[in-house]
Amino acid sequence: MDPPATADAASSSSxxxxxxxxxxxxxxxxxxxxxxxxxxxxxxxxxGDVESGGVGAExxxxxxxxxxxxxxxxxxxxxxxxxxxxxxAAARAGLEATLVRHPRFSSVQVSDDAKKNAKPxxxxxxxxxxxxxxxPRLDPAASSADPDRAVxxxxxxxxxMPMDHxxxxxxxxxxxxxxxxxxxxxxIRMHHSLGDGVSLISLLMACTRSAADPTRLPALPxxxxxxxxxxxxxxxxxxLAAWVWSVVVLxxxxxxxxxxxxxxxxxxxxxRTPFMGAEGVEFRRKRFLNCTLSLDDVKFVKNAMxxxxxxxxxGVTSAALSRYYFRKTDDTSADDSRKANKSxxxxxxxxxxxxxxxxxxxxAEMMDSSKDNAVKWGNQIGYIVLPFHIAMHDDPLxxxxxxxxxxxxxxRSLEAVFTYWSGNLVVKLLGIKAAAALCYxxxxxxxxxxxxxxxxxxxxxxxxxxxxxxxxxVYGHPHALTVHFQSYMNIMKLVLAVDDEQFPDSHQLLDDFxxxxxxxxxxxxxxx
Length: 528
What we know:
Layout: H1 18-21, H2 34-52, E1 58-59, H3 62-66, E2 75-82, H4 88-97, E3 107-110, E4 121-124, E5 133-134, H5 140-145, H6 147-157, E6 170-175, E7 184-191, H7 197-206, E8 208-210, H8 237-266, E9 286-294, H9 295-305, H10 309-328, H11 334-343, E10 347-353, H12 360-366, E11 381-387, H13 397-411, H14 415-430, H15 432-445, E12 448-453, E13 460-462, E14 465-475, E15 481-488, E16 491-499, H16 506-527
Parallel strand pairs: 5-6, 10-12, 12-15
Antiparallel strand pairs: 1-4, 2-7, 2-14, 3-4, 6-7, 8-13, 9-16, 10-11, 13-14, 15-16
């Protein structure tokens, strides 16, 4: 089930700019074999680079290789709403001074198909910005009549556009017209093999500067401290015993999670619900839609319930999914709903970056050719299976309590570390195809993807353009629903990536999230 394609990247010459070759009809994508065209472009690029010798090549990480596989050809899309029209000259100068200098954003993937078990690698190349900056030709009437819909349709159309693998795997799409939230927007599309999502979005933030002081990198929210080591004997026997017990609990939880992860990869399947994707969903068009939530409301609930922001987000997601599920299944009886809760297995696959993300100053130095930076880059990600609580509750805060319970349980486990190292071991012993098969089983047997990311705590500028909002998501994996939360200043952007055919009422699902947060905030206020 190949996706429709609106542009033939493989057939365009290297001297032809993307602004000329992309004319997009976002309302009704045409049929075609975009995946085959992209594969052909990659093969042609591989042959050419192998012949040139591949000087200075760097091997790809196992996770990076996984994102080259057919069922995991994943891309990250970051939509930035801007407070001013796009200054193309300033944007070009900014890209040349930052992203273009980053090793991954100035390299192509090459592999020698003539050699058995040849591993793909990164090879530095010359970047022509005209190949990466895209000025789509949209219908002026549609853009004027409903600019928000025009942006949404265009960004959604990117999920069916192949990317030319003979060039560095990123694009900068300019949508230079006002919407209800911003004066203009840019959509940055990056292949997931370039790095894990946290590192890539952090890298984009390293390209920004504080609006209050353009010479300074933006301030990020403080990260929570990790678990400490064993206490000193002076702390007392009880403290030492508590630490030993926590280690035992960690080991047990990890063992249980590992067994459940293996079962999920092989046969343990979620309950069939309206959220579960059909076979081949990774090849179908995705619609990206977002709404702005109040980060202050989220923090209010967090303080009232004495939990974390992520606990609140998990709880609100459970509440929203429950509202949508019981409305779609015409089951609104409280008794039946509580009974259904015991039998509904709905879980998300969650990617976890197991390596500490470099700070913004370190990432900025990686794009400074005058400095020698030894920071490692690449995909070092593990997976965890995160269950969601589906039920109808009279008390909206019960969703937050269940979310905190779920999150606390996962914090006391090394599931992500195990899946990372075991995945590398499978690649070494059985090859990337076997690892991809296991991951495919895990994704197809779970229902959705879920993630959250903290953005700058202050207003920032992107190459001189004030950023109004940040909305990021991902596509190319076997899920029909992906939920992502992105904070920035005092707002929380909720971004849904949904199968366009399976969720014709996707805006209703979006409204369910907003209504769930409103009810939870109201209940927390009454509790306080």
